[in-house]
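Lecture notes, continued. The same structure-token format from the folding unit now serves as the input rather than the output. Read the line below as a description of shape only.
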């Protein structure tokens, strides 16, 4: 069946919605095809019923009142990067917040208010105008909304913590259309849940963050080692990062080298390990800190040097264009010892050799502020025991290739299962089912608390297009 042949059966929601002032798009409207595109191109296989493009919080409230009165589940689109494609499900009523794009920075109080449609590149640009930063993720087109509500990790997490650790408040519309604020004093339980529990509790229209002084100068780049050296380099990283300053962020990528002119021809099409350091400490110490990484082997390429924060936090954009097909699986690791390294390299060796596709296994170093400065139970976001985060992220274009990449990703999960912790960062993996969701927040008590808060704010589970926390039932 072609994706469009299901259109006539979609609900029309002809009476949508009293007081809604934004544009409303159904499948045959001009602009619908563009509006439905999200990061994961697999959502093109199904068609949402209606996309309500909200202009402000009143639109969000009007849309939610409409849905609530009819008991309709709603999906929410921020930056559209959610790997599960929950932002644009087939047949759904979608609240699209991508038009709500204002950011304001107060350099005196070092606070930032950003609307829920803002993407990371915009947040970085606005804060850097004042020499400030909010720690977030590593790709500029990712939305602040989904990223923050899940936790938020990136190059600066060892120095400034997760994004939720810098979150001061959320402005939220409840499922029945009320405007509320959540911070440490007002609705503190809700604020706790919004820091890691995802889009389960209401629709957030704006976030307030604490910003930190940074840049514009930082030291970053990529150090590429040939596949034969990957095991030796990777197995030394745990000890090195345990001793590294918080100002050093480190991502690593295992992949098959694309035919880039910067790489020698002998490397093209061969497995490589790429270290992606970002050092934000004093410039005079940078050389020594980076050398400890480059001396782990004999790199075939080393681009690390002084640059800007804005260039650093967009350097990965080119490998993740919008609209390709993908799946993301991942989890936390306590260590990066030999058995883990062997499993990672075995999975790289098995990557589908399909022209025009790009598969990576990424491993990020935690530690420092994200691991040590905020207690496990202080937010819903779980981090306990995690020193590393792994994720596999194949990207391809043809529907016919779905099965082979899903199979590779499943096998990667299985290979790493013995070393993967039960808790995880929910945003950098697809949903792995009910048992996984119960463990992902780090303890049964935290899951129970989330389910109870869900029961208060969304008892009918209208917000279910997400990594869903079912409302607790009273026992
Ligand atoms: C290429 C790529 C790179 C990534 N890099 C990083 C990274 O470096 N660091 C990191 O931490 N994560 C990263 N992620 C994961 C990312 O944080 C999540 O995918 C996140 O959900 C994206 O948020 P979004 O608003 O763009 O996505 P969307 O798909 O729009 O939203 C995801 C989900 O969040 C919820 N949601 C969104 N907006 C709202 C709202 N206003 N109110 C309530 N609920 C809402 C909904 O449940 C929605 O389904 C990356 C993902 C991709 C695809």
């Amino acid at each position: 069946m072609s994706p469009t042949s299901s259109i006539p059966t979609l609900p029309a929601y002809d009476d949508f919605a009293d007081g809604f002032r934004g544009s409303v798009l159904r499948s045959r409207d001009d602009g619908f095809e563009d509006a439905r595109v999200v990061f994961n191109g697999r959502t093109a296989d199904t068609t949402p019923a209606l996309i309500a493009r909200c202009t402000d919080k009143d639109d969000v409230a009007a849309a939610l009142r409409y849905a609530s009165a009819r008991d309709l589940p709603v999906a929410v689109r921020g930056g559209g990067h959610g790997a599960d494609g929950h932002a644009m499900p087939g047949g759904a009523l979608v609240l699209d917040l991508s038009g709500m794009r204002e950011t304001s920075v107060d350099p005196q109080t070092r606070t930032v208010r950003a609307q829920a449609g803002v993407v990371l590149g915009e947040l970085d640009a606005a804060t850097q105008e004042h020499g400030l930063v909010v720690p977030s993720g590593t790709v500029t087109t990712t939305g602040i909304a989904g990223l923050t509500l899940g936790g938020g990790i990136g190059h600066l997490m060892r120095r400034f913590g997760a994004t939720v650790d810098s979150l001061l408040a959320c402005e939220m519309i409840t499922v029945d259309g009320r405007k509320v604020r959540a911070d440490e004093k007002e609705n503190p339980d809700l604020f706790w849940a919004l820091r890691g529990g995802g889009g389960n509790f209401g629709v957030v229209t704006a976030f307030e963050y604490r910003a930190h002084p940074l840049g514009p100068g930082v030291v970053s780049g990529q150090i590429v080692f040939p596949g034969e050296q990957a095991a030796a380099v990777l197995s030394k990283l745990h000890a090195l990062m345990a001793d590294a300053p918080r100002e050093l962020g480190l991502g690593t990528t295992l992949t098959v080298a694309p035919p880039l002119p910067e790489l020698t021809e002998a490397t093209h099409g061969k497995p490589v390990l790429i270290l992606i350091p970002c050092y934000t400490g004093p410039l005079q110490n940078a050389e020594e800190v980076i050398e400890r990484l480059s001396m782990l082997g004999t790199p075939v390429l080393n681009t690390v040097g002084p640059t800007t924060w804005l260039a650093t936090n967009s350097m990965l954009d080119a490998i993740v264009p919008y609209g390709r097909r993908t799946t993301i699986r991942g989890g936390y690791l306590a260590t990066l010892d030999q058995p883990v390294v062997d499993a990672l390299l075995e999975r790289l060796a098995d990557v589908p050799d399909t022209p025009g596709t790009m598969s990576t296994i990424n491993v990020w170093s935690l530690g420092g502020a994200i691991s040590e400065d905020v207690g496990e139970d202080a937010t819903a976001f779980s981090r306990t025991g995690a020193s590393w985060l792994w994720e596999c992220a194949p990207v391809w274009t043809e529907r016919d290739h779905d099965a082979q990449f899903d199979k590779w990703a499943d096998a990667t999960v299985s290979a790493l299962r013995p070393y993967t912790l039960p808790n995880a960062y929910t945003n950098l993996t697809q949903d792995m089912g009910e048992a996984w969701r119960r463990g992902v927040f780090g303890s049964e008590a935290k899951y129970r608390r989330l389910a109870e808060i869900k029961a208060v704010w969304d008892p009918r589970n209208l917000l279910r297009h997400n990594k869903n926390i079912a409302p607790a039932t009273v026992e």
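Point for the exam: The first helix runs from residue 32 to 35.
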